[in-house]
């Protein structure tokens, strides 16, 4: 099955700096790569996703890059703010007629200090 | 648009007791998922439904876990008997096409 590795497990940055989280996946058939943000006591919330037919996607301060050859993808957050502090999860899955069953990384705890 | 609803939010039970969690997905979402999230880890898929049929339950511990989705809408996840290692957050999620939406989760503590 699919194995998703995520690094680092913890990340501390100062407000205004950039944060980068990296993930690798094992199954070359995976073609959908979402990123979720989870705040304490809440469920994961989708923040951005990318499909295998594109190499980069950006949404305001958040961007994701995908390298299919190397089987890795990364989340980039620019101009970080204290409210970006949370646990971030990457995931990978294959598209199927029955939907996407996500395989998650172990998460990165991001702390943005003022 | 209402999100994925789950109940109860919190439950504390003794080992060997039973517990049931309920999920109401977003209206119109044919696919429903139950994930288990142990503290400090990413969510792990337990079971996936497409309408009221099971698509994938390969990681569901069937000797103690069961799930159903009657009429292709609401779903229940049951654990009987519970073990200490079942302490986790149980997340329900649903999707129509590509985007998967999660509920707030049901926190289970087994003592």
Average pLDDT of chain B, rounded to a whole number, is 94
Q: What is the count of DSSP helices of chain B, taking H or I runs of 4+ residues?
A: 0
Rg of chain B (CA only)? 13 Å
Radius of gyration of chain A in whole Å, from Cα?
A: 14 Å
Hey, roughly how much beta strand do the residues of chain A contain? over 45%
What portion of residues of chain B belong to β-strands? over 45%
Distance from N terminus to C terminus of chain B (CA atoms, Å) equals: 37 Å
Shape of chain A: globular
The run of helices and strands of chain B is EEEEEEEEEEE
Structural class of chain B: mainly beta
Helix/strand class of chain A: mainly beta
Helical content class of chain B: under 10%
Write structural notes for this entry.
The complex is a heterodimer of chains A (114) and B (111). Chain A has 114 residues and is mostly beta strands. In chain A, 0% of the residues lie in helices and 54% in strands. In chain A, a hairpin with a 2-residue loop joins strand 6 (56-59) and strand 7. With 111 residues, chain B is mostly beta strands. The model of chain B has no long low-confidence stretch (mean pLDDT 94). Classes of the chains: A mainly beta (114), B mainly beta (111). The interface between A and B is medium-sized, with 25 and 25 residues.
């Amino acid at each position: 099955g699919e194995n998703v590795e995520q690094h680092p497990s913890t990340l501390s940055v100062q407000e205004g700096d950039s944060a980068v989280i990296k993930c690798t996946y094992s199954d070359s058939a995976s073609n959908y790569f979402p990123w979720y943000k989870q705040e304490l006591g809440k469920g994961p919330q989708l923040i951005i996703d990318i499909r295998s037919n594109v190499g980069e996607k950006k949404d305001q301060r958040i961007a994701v890059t995908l390298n299919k050859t190397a089987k890795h993808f990364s989340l980039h957050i620019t101009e970080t703010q204290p409210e970006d502090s949370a646990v971030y999860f990457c995931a990978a899955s294959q598209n199927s007629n029955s939907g996407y069953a996500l395989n998650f990384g172990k998460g990165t705890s991001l702390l943005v200090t003022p | 648009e209402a999100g994925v609803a789950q109940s109860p939010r919190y439950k504390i039970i003794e080992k060997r007791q039973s517990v049931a969690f309920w999920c109401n997905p977003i209206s119109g979402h044919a696919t429903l998922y139950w994930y288990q999230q142990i503290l400090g880890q990413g969510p792990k898929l337990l079971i996936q439904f497409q309408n009221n049929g099971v698509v994938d339950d390969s990681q569901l511990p069937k000797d103690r876990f069961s799930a159903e989705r009657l009429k292709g809408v609401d779903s229940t996840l049951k654990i009987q008997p519970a073990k200490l290692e079942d302490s986790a957050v149980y997340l329900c999620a649903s999707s129509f096409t590509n985007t998967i939406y999660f509920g707030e989760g049901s926190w289970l503590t087994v003592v």
